Amino acid sequence: MMIDLNTTWFILVGVLIGGYAILDGFDLGVGVIHLFTRNEHERRVNLNAIGPVWDGNEVWLLTGGGALFAAFPIVYATVFSAFYMALMLLLVALIFRAVSLEFRGKVDAPAWKRFWDWAFGLGSLVPALLFGVAVGNIARGIPLDSEGMYTGGFFNLLNPYALLAGALSLVMCVMHGAAYLSMKSEGDQRRRMRKWLSRTWIAFAALYACVLIATYFAAPFLLYGVSKSPLLLALLIILMAGLVFIPIASGANRDGRAFLASAVTILATVGLFAVCLFPRLVPSCTDLANSLTIYNAASTPRTHRVMLIIALVGMPLVIGYSAVIYRVFKGKVVLTEDSY
Question: Each residue of 132-145: pLDDT tens digit?
């Protein structure tokens, strides 16, 4: 089967979103765990575990947003209009998270550090929750008219299904962050992170099942024809394998493999959502005929071709940069005078 430019860009945007979910997902999870960390040494381990990589991880979000704007500008405009208040809150949270990493160690005072610890933690918790709420609203569909304009209000976004998806996203990030900190820490902190991983794994599996059941009632169109899709079946098998392997690897003291299994689980989750959504990008809950798809919301073919050339050059650079950074800073966190 031939894959046209519209489908190619759908896949590329999905890859960027999946990459961001894996890479910044553990950053956000570490931030949430930081809220419950009471030992100063362990707080510094948390900060230094993500310190060298967090800004590079966020490049995937910026690149994904840019790709969405270039390939599907109507979707970009509609989603940003519909989620405007949530996106402003998200932006403030991400700014506070970034600033807290740099400012926390500038003054050696308990109150100062405590303020920035909370800024770091809440600046991680809010995005982890809001990303899930946004995905839940996209899955359920948002009210769009025949011209693709959003006709709802802010409180339309705070529906039970979206909030359930937000809870799933939050737990997923914490699980991923615990797996990452298990690799980067030692001693008592490492043992505690394994307990966090075990508990959040259970919560993630339970919430995932709840979201699947809720999807049957809130967004049944996502499930049309799924039993006939070999790709969806393959992704489901990969998801289940990754999910089952997380506690097995962690119990065998294979922290790196547990983290990899967590990453595979997240990527399979993003893939399953994309396959179920295709070819829609933003379903309409008022009338599915009003949905924005990869065809009625796309840029011109020339734009797709030009941007594809740029993407084929730029994406390997982003991937290569990420690979080098993670290779340089692999291993356990070692605190020095220059550390956060």
Answer: 999 999 999 999 98
